[in-house]
Write a structure and sequence with these properties.
Largest sheet: 6 strands, antiparallel
Radius of gyration: 21 Å
Order of helices and strands: HEEEEEEEEEEHH
Number of strands: 10
Oligomer: single chain
């Protein structure tokens, strides 16, 4: 128990992992948190694990991981089994931020159009993943976009396009060739009532897309996309470099 101590997280006999989430929007300037773990008490370190120990641990981890994934895929984490939808945001555990989950399913000649509200000055991030929750390429491709990487509409909302081939729209979420998968959205704070921030989720034919996008939507050429992705890869690599004091 904390017994009045600040910044104390009480563990239990089953706990094995500490999660630390970095919320980056400016990849060129923000640095990852430094995390260190120091053991201050408890039993002495156990014997070195044998090969059989490691095999058994790997089997248990795979079984546990599959159980978690199956639970998430069948409605966990605020999800839904209905195709081409995004759920109403919910407040994250511990009171940190908000999140929503959805999914996409489309043919080569289709696109999913999403318009989502963001709070002024708040973080908004959206990412794509495979049906087994493997993240789409966000290192040197737009498998994810945050509020600094995407272009906002005049009213502060963000309109995204998910489709297999690059539509020449700046806010293209690249599904890495997948025709179906998962959508995750995270906010640090909401601009309005939770049921109003996911404004539109609409499946279209690609030839209908131009007529449904905002008139002043930001567009990119193939050369511009390649340059955006090149710079994105360089910015991403910063988090693994030693940081200067």
């Amino acid at each position: 128990p904390a017994n009045g101590r600040a910044n104390h997280i009480q563990s239990n006999a089953d706990a094995r992992i500490v999660w630390v989430r970095n919320m980056f929007d400016d990849w060129d300037r923000q640095n990852p948190l430094e995390v260190a773990i120091k053991r201050t008490g408890g039993p002495e370190a156990s014997r070195q694990r044998t090969r059989d120990d490691r095999i058994q641990h790997a089997m248990e981890a795979m079984e546990g991981g599959c159980d978690v994934l199956l639970e998430l895929l069948h409605g966990g984490f605020g999800g839904t089994d209905k195709s081409n939808t995004v759920t109403t945001p919910f407040r994250r555990g511990g009171g940190w931020g908000y999140a929503a989950r959805g999914n996409f399913k489309m043919a080569d000649d289709e696109a999913l159009l999403l318009t989502i509200m963001a709070a002024e000055g708040g973080y908004l991030g959206i990412q794509l993943a495979s049906p087994w929750l493997v993240s789409c390429n966000s290192v040197n491709a737009s498998g994810s976009l945050n509020n600094a990487q995407a272009k906002a509409n005049p009213d502060g909302s963000y309109t995204y396009v998910i489709c297999v081939k690059d539509p020449g729209i700046h806010n293209w979420l690249n599904p890495a060739g997948l025709h179906e998968g998962e959508i995750f959205v995270r906010w640090s704070t909401l601009p309005d009532a939770a049921d109003k921030v996911v404004r539109e989720v609409k499946l279209l034919k690609l030839d209908q897309l131009s007529g449904m996008l905002p008139a002043d939507v930001a567009k990119v050429t193939p050369a511009q996309r390649a340059e955006i992705n090149r710079k994105r890869g360089i910015s991403y690599a910063r988090r693994y470099m030693p940081q200067q004091a």
